[in-house]
Write the structure tokens for this entry.
Amino acid sequence: MAMSRIALITGANSGLGLATAQALARQGFTLIFLLRSREKGEKARKQILEKSPQAQIDLFFADLTDMDSIRQASQQIHANYDRIDCLINNAGYAPAQIEFTREGYEKSFVANHLGHFLLTLELIDLLEASGQGRIINLSSAAHAMGKSRRFFLKHNAKMNIWSAYGDGKLANLLFTKELANRLEGKNVTAYAVHPGVVNTQFGRNFTDWWKYGFGILRPFMITTEEGAQTSIFLATADLPKSYNGGYFSKSKPARTLNRDVNDYNAQLLWKRSEEAIGERWQL
Ligand SMILES: NC(=O)c1ccc[n+]([C@@H]2O[C@H](COP(=O)([O-])OP(=O)(O)OC[C@H]3O[C@@H](n4cnc5c(N)ncnc54)[C@H](OP(=O)(O)O)[C@@H]3O)[C@@H](O)[C@H]2O)c1
């Protein structure tokens, strides 16, 4: 009997993460969920088991703004798994207001990028053990609003919610690019995704005008099942080598929308991210 493939999905309790998990469970993947709420995780697991009763789903917990919680979750995952075939860095949000971490970094940037940066490095040995490990980073067309010169500025008073979100999604793209460069020859590949404009919990934290605007747009958004297609494609299809490090929409390579997407910024982001987590990794 063929070995079941193993996928770890962050933020699998909601929206695109849940729809991706449903689809991968149907295809026989063993699933590892990394979440911050046990209650929401159990509910999601139940939902998946209703449709795929054979599914194997393990829950682990971390908040992507809390680096120690990520390190602890990684230890627990290592105690239970000796390989991961697919890491889907899916969790993310646009902030309703600008908040800074204790270190002074904008909080959504930390959750959207830095937490996933650390998680990926923590799990890289398990992805290498797969022999064909894949890393899928949920970016967005909103990367167009990002600026690499704002990365890791502390207590930046000029930041607004869309520049913060744009920076995180630009970082997801640059991280993907640099992963592909650094993992060359190691049998681990990386891909970035724009899922479309999808009706999920995204934006439900907004207040005032944005809440109203998103409410009006919701009926025109695509479903989570449709939005998850590109992630599912990248997790399961035979992919040409040239796709490594690329940006994808509608299951096809897509053009990036920001001049800051280049190797120089990808390397700089990596360096600054290592400084922010206080660790260097030999990749
Ligand atoms: N929806 C869209 O139109 C759209 C478009 C482009 C890109 N995306 C990207 O797609 C990804 C999934 O978003 P979605 O639309 O499915 O949104 P969603 O329904 O709001 O799901 C977001 C998930 O991220 C988790 N999360 C948020 N902050 C976290 C933190 N600090 N630590 C751990 N988990 C955290 C949430 O956990 P809780 O349930 O505990 O809050 C939830 O599971 C995001 O990266 C988003 O940027 C979405």
